[in-house]
Amino acid sequence: MFKPVRWCMFSSLFWGCKTRPVIGCIARVLLLQQGMNDGDFVQQFETCTFPFDQWHHRAHVKLAYIYLVRFGFANASQKLREGIRACNAANKVPKTPTRGYHETLTLFWLHVIQMTVQEYGPRVTADEFFDFHPQLSQNKIHRLFYSSDLFMSARAKSEFVEPDLTSLPRARVAAAT
Fold first, then answer.
1. Is residue 172 part of a domain?
2. 151: part of which helix (H) or strand (E)?
């Protein structure tokens, strides 16, 4: 089981930094998420028992990867859509312009992850996949593809819209469906 991370492990790295408590918290979340196998992670997500305070970008990417590998793009998108909405409802996440489920963001990331799998192949676990592809840790890369106005629009939140700054990447390897 998860043991608390002692700050002394990280103190030399962040000595004098005013954000040490935040960094320590992030480190604990990453260690906890990396310690859970894919099956347990999916089971907790699908029953809305995954700790909501740990539902960050890494968890989203891991889940999208697992669903893509197991079910393919169409079924993965449906399962993600339904699951995220269910977990948001279970955790009383308000539906506002800046909170709640965002269709374009979800499908953008699903596309990027699918392209990564097609181009570089799958890994044994979702954690290994995430760690092997550090570009996936950059949770704001959608800004390279979408203008702020389009991305923050009600339409983009409720339905997938194609990017307006540049096209989504395409893998050189054909998708196996």
1. no
2. helix 148-151
Whole-prediction pTM value?
A: 0.78
Question: Tell me, what's the pLDDT at 176?
Answer: 53
Check: CB of residue 62 under 8 Å from CB of residue 32: no
Residue ranges of the chain with per-residue pLDDT less than 50:
1-33
Q: What is the number of residues in the chain?
A: 177
CA distance 44 to 47: 5
Specify the pLDDT at position 113: 97
Structural domain of 71: 18-158
Do 148 and 142 touch, CB atoms closer than 8 A?
A: no
* Exposure class string for 156-177: b at 16+ Cβ within 10 A, else e: bbeeebebeeeeeeeeeeeeee
40 in a structural domain: yes
| Identity at 59, one-letter amino acid code | A
φ, ψ of residue 43 in degrees (nearest 5): -60, -45
